[in-house]
Write a structure and sequence with these properties.
- The termini are far apart.
- Strand 18 and strand 19 form a beta hairpin.
- With 583 residues, the chain is an alpha+beta fold.
- The strands form 4 sheets. Strands 3-2-1-6-5-4 form a 6-stranded antiparallel sheet, sandwiched between helices. A 6-stranded antiparallel sheet has the order 9-8-7-12-11-10, sandwiched between helices. The protein has a 5-stranded antiparallel sheet with strand order 13-22-21-18-19, with helices on one face.
- It has helices at 3-9, 15-28, 53-58, 68-74, 94-98, 131-157, 161-182, 187-202, 238-242, 253-260, 269-275, 316-353, 405-424, 429-442, 535-549, 554-565, and strands spanning 32-39, 42-49, 60-62, 78-80, 102-109, 115-123, 206-213, 226-229, 245-247, 264-266, 289-296, 299-307, 363-370, 381-387, 393-400, 449-456, 466-473, 479-481, 487-489, 510-514, 519-523, 574-581.
Length: 583
């Protein structure tokens, strides 16, 4: 390690390396992370976040308290859920003295390729690290190694201020790459980040990604493979849009780069056009251009295209930086693809947990489930409807506390138990929710939920309309809108306690009349609640939408209400169930 690095590590933090530690904390959800360099007799922390006060100040510890030394010993990553159970680490004094339990460390290397330490995340409790977290740590460690290597090369070469400025620029580019691409979740996110980084850091006019896919994915049965442009929503790159689909072969520069696995560089567009005269160049812009294959773990994913406004012969430093951009972009594309596959699987799971609505001669039923935009598309909101042997229809909408796949698992159990109780027993909604509460305790179902259980009674010739009975376990009130547009919230008294808290809670049945032509709406709180706003405002907003659209059929009614109240970017899951009594 160079003298500059030693000075930064002993008693002083390096702001750039501190930033890597902060990114690890954010990306892996831990409180402590370090850039650790192993030296004879000590471990120094030129980059750190969340260390105890004395270590954060001194920036060093003896090797007796270092897990990171094991990364250097093994010359590879060390991923441990519980160090107390790991033969390599169980005797390390960092466990009793610092309370370190879970550890994930990825090697960092200097300009000679020597592994000098670790970029690591630690936790004070046992923890299973996910594949996505480990991949993120690997990406950040690669960026950190690149910066350390550049510093070593700068000190070693001593080529003067001009070269140092160039290296500093490359360091900023690499940091911008790791930071800009680490937060991407979708292919569009990746395309937008790559374009922004290329324009800001490399001075490009345009940058874009063409991804490899089968021709039949764009509607041509058994067609050959193609490269398809991932168009950011606000792109102004007309030439890219005109050439959005290109053959996956060497008849074009992007296909050639992908097929042969090496970059194509052109200092001006006339050179490219002479080689590929058949391409559509009507809207061609810029002069210098680079086409870099996107390859990760031996798999060709597509091609990165970079366009500069003026002729721009690429230096060796430019090429290294562009290759880094392509490498980071390929990893981000792969993560986005895996995440999309995961989200598709979760949506399938959620759909399987939400049953189809039953058919009814007198009732029109419709339901919608909308996941929150900011996390995996699965949660604890649900709806259900069961037609009873008596002709009555039981309706349920609920919301399990939590916003993840665990909440969805609890939701599946509650929904199944409640619909079974509804089918087999004929007493009122309150009694059936009490049975659900007791079943949760007896069957060790860990969770809490709010819900509304309503029942539309069978037809009674002495009643004009249908009798509606319901019980409310801590849930937003059902809404009733008549054929004349009169809106009523069924909030007679304080709602009962949510389920999963106190099994012997007394619950009340409430009764109302569902007149012909009326629509009953059950919903979860994501429809009406907004941060920093009283729920009364949300209920008034819902009432206004219901009055505007009450003449529509139930499917169109739900879509219109959801469009007005939540739009496309939801902050919380939403489940809604609408029941219309035909006139």
């Amino acid at each position: 390690m160079t003298g500059a690095m030693v000075e930064a590590g002993a008693g002083h933090g390096d702001p750039s390396l501190d930033r890597y530690a902060r990114m690890v904390c954010r990306a892996l959800g831990v409180g402590t992370a370090t850039v650790t360099i192993i030296e004879p007799g000590r471990a120094v922390f030129p980059g750190a976040c969340g260390l105890p006060e004395d270590l954060q100040r001194d920036r060093e510890s003896p090797l007796s308290h270092s897990f990171c030394k094991q990364v250097v010993v093994e010359q590879g990553p060390v991923i441990v859920a519980d160090a107390r159970e790991d033969d390599r680490l169980r005797d390390n004094l960092a466990i009793p003295d610092l309370g370190l339990i879970a550890y994930a460390g990825w090697p960092i290397s200097d300009h000679t390729g020597t592994i000098v330490g670790s970029l690591c995340a630690v936790d004070g409790a046992p923890r299973q690290w996910t594949d996505a977290q480990i991949e993120m740590l690997e990406d950040l460690a690669a960026a950190c190694s690149a910066e350390i290597s550049e510093r070593g090369l700068r000190d070693l070469a001593a080529i003067g201020e001009s070269a140092a400025q160039d290296l500093s620029h490359r360091s900023r580019v690499l940091l911008a790459l790791s930071e800009g691409l680490s937060a991407t979740r979708t292919m569009t996110d990746v395309a937008q980040a790559v374009e922004a980084i290329a324009i800001d850091q490399l001075g490009c006019l345009h940058a874009g990604i063409w991804l490899r896919n089968d021709g039949d994915e764009i509607g041509a049965a058994q067609a050959p493979e193609v490269l398809t442009f991932v168009a950011p929503p606000t792109t102004t790159w007309e030439s890219a849009l005109r050439n959005a689909v290109l053959p996956f072969d060497d008849t074009n520069p992007m296909g050639g780069a992908a097929v042969h696995g090496h970059a194509e560089y052109f200092s001006d567009r006339s050179i490219q056009n002479a080689l590929y005269p058949h391409l559509d160049t009507v809207k061609q812009v810029g002069e210098a251009r680079s086409f870099q294959p996107l390859i990760t773990r031996g798999q060709v994913l597509g091609t990165l295209a970079l366009i500069w406004q003026d002729p721009h012969p690429l230096s060796e430093q430019d090429r290294v930086t562009i290759e880094a951009l392509a490498s980071y972009s390929a990893q981000a594309v792969q993560r986005a693809g895996l995440l999309q596959e995961r989200l598709d699987a979760l949506v399938t799971l959620q759909s399987a947990l939400l049953s189809d609505l039953p058919e009814s001669e007198c009732l029109e039923l419709a339901a919608r489930y909308r996941p929150a935009a900011s996390r995996d598309q699965v949660g604890g909101d649900w709806y259900d409807a069961v037609v009873m042997p008596s002709g009555a229809t039981s309706l349920m909408v609920g919301d399990v506390v939590g916003h993840d796949i665990a909440a969805a698992a609890v939701m599946g159990q509650l929904r199944t138990m409640l619909r079974t109780i509804a089918w087999t027993l004929r007493d009122g909604p309150a009694a059936q929710v009490r049975r659900l509460d007791r079943a949760m305790e007896d069957l060790d179902v860990e969770g809490m939920a709010t819900l509304v259980y309503a029942r539309v009674d069978a037809e009674d010739p002495d009643v004009e309309g249908r009798v509606l009975r319901w019980t409310n376990a801590g849930h937003p009130p059902p809404m009733l809108v008549t054929a004349a547009g009169e809106v009523t919230f069924l909030d007679d008294g304080t709602p009962d306690l949510m389920v999963g808290v106190q099994p012997d809670t007394e619950r009340l049945d409430r009764t109302a009349l569902l007149p012909p032509g009326a629509t009953l709406l059950l919903y979860t709180d994501g429809l009406v609640e907004r941060r920093g706003e009283s729920i009364t405002v949300g209920l008034e907003r819902l009432a206004g939408a219901a009055q505007r659209y009450q003449t529509l059929g139930v499917d169109a009614f739900l879509d219109a209400v959801l469009g007005d109240l939540v739009g496309t970017e939801l902050n919380d899951d939403v489940a809604v169930l609408a029941v219309h009594l035909r006139a």
